[in-house]
Amino acid sequence: MEQIRSLSALLEHAKKITAEKGPKRISVAKADDPGLLTALEQARSCGMATFVLTGDEDKIKAAAQQANVDLASYQIINVTNEPEMGLAAVKEVSGGKADIYMKGQIHTNHFLRGMLNKEVGLRMGKNTISHCYFHHIEGFDRILFISDAAFNMYPDLAQKADIVKNTVKLAKAFGVQCPKVACLAAVEVVNPDMPATLDAAALAAMGNRGQIPGCIIDGPFALDNAINEESAKTKGITSPVAGKADILLVPNIEAGNMMAKAIVYFTKNETAGLILGAAAPIILTSRADSPRTKLTSIAAAVTLADNK
Fold first, then answer.
1. Pair 111, 181 in one domain
2. Are 15 and 51 in the same domain?
3. What residue numbers bound the domain in which 65 lies?
4. Which residue, 159, 94, 96, 152, is CA-closest to 124?
5. For the segment 8-53, what is each residue's pLDDT rounded down to a tens digit?
6. What is the pTM of this model?
7. Structural domain tally of the chain?
8. Which string of b and e fits 197-215 if b means at least 16 CB within 10 Å?
9. Phosphate acetyl/butaryl transferase domain spans which residues (predicted)?
10. Euclidean distance between CA atoms 245 and 258, whole angstroms
11. Where are the alpha helices (DSSP H) in the chain?
């Protein structure tokens, strides 16, 4: 498979695989927003996915009318209580009736409670669930994956290793044969007073010993020498990851959240995101995200589901 280097290429790839194998089915929690339904209809009309919509049926129909979307091709599960919407949507996935769990206008806490529900949720044993933003930024020849900027607040070393494994699987689904993983910190040298550098060095050692397979992992790196080859050369850093990173492992949620939002607001980019490490792909988008962002997130989930 050729490496996917932009989110436009990701859309075309998702269309291609579903044209060959059929659409994926996506269960949406609280689907009563015109912008959301616009994105769903774009995905449905190109054959990428079919949808089951949970939520207040009257509100879904009103939003569809506003978006000029014909609901004849959609299944609706009428639920008026928001916490129950998440449970109803996730049951479709855990019960084998749908392939992907997607957040609509539901509040994030209710959505995640559905995902983590012990009886009908999507957690797999003790596996760490993580979030990944992926960006195509003007001037870069590849997609950059940032994890975890939205789910795990202060991951320990074992959780960071799991986060890397989750993100590597996504990058491989995008055709990155051997993802280069940069463990980020404020500096590029190990400093005992800076825990992020100690974790980075440990993760690099784990990678060298085959404990984190399928990738090349190194660190610590400051951001500049992780993504800019000239910066890495200037600082005398010799590493196959230096300046060429595909995956940026952030030390904590503050660093990741600020980085992801800086990319969104300070650069010309396309951005989408998924929750990884669960029994099925999970689309966690903001209620304020554009229909395009929701569409590319659907394409990513479809690609990951096919890869699984």
1. no
2. yes
3. 5-123+277-305
4. 94
5. 999 999 999 999 999 999 999 999 999 999 999 999 999 999 999 9
6. 0.93
7. 2
8. bbbbbbbbebbeeeebebb
9. 19-85, 88-301
10. 19
11. 7-21, 34-45, 57-67, 82-94, 108-116, 157-173, 195-208, 223-227, 229-234, 253-266, 291-307
